[in-house]
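Bench notes, afternoon.
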Amino acid sequence: MPVQMGANDMTRIHDACYRSQLLSQRIRQRTDIALRELIDAYTKKLDFMLLQDLMISAKAWSHVAHSGIQAHKVFAHPDLLVCHPETSAYYRGIALLSQKRVSELACPVTSWERGMGKKVRVPGDKAKEVARLYNTVISSIIEGATGWTLENGYRNVIATMAIGLDGSMRNIIGKDAEAIVKARIRNWLESQGLVVSSNEQETTFNLVQDYTMYYKPEPDIEFQKNGIPIATIEIKGGRDPAGALERFGAMTKSFENTPPGCTNILIAGVITDEMRKRLQNIGVVKVFQLDDIDTDGPKWSEFLNEVFHHILRITGEVKHS
């Protein structure tokens, strides 16, 4: 017998397909090859004589030299990073380090790596600090491997890019959830004749009974009357359980700025047991799950009733058909 899948299962499968398609598209751009070609084309002389100053171990250097590999294809040099900051992604990849980890141990490199051909000014001292970090880790990897090859390094670059892209995809999916929820709310209000007017950007909506709805970065949605916040909605659409507490922290930071008496609502892509426990301890946040309200159904009607019937009181009770 075929296994029947519920709406939640279909949503998760859709998200998995969407993420995989985006990842495949990004990987096909082959940024790793573009970086390799940029490094191969660098012809200025690089001084690697002071190995210790660049944090390159003698054992790792010897292995690379005896393998016939050009040093700058393995080890980072400050001069090359200053000239081509985007190559940070290549050496960071060989070292299997995330941008966040590099920021913690040396300095931020996100702007360095943001797009090929965009010139970023990198101070020499920062370039050296980052190069020393990369070389320390790369040396350790080479020393700990049996017969390390440059191909191993290339594989590390691709793996690091894929991991970073997966994190980016989670953010994109989260943003998609925000756009979906905002569109559903706007469309429903307009269908009920509750929108009096809106600005050209459709970020400010004047509702009946002198209420105003704002679509903002933080909180995502805010309802005001006479300039006083009445209710806010935070949309955290990410479904990765590992990032649930981080999203919870961002939510609480946003809600901390609301005045007493303001009702705060969370729409979450996933709620872990620990997150549920913390939400219960707060006790002032009403919670809905994204899967329950991104399509018409009883939970969607419950959400509409909570916001527009019980809190704002601008409509009668919404019946689920």
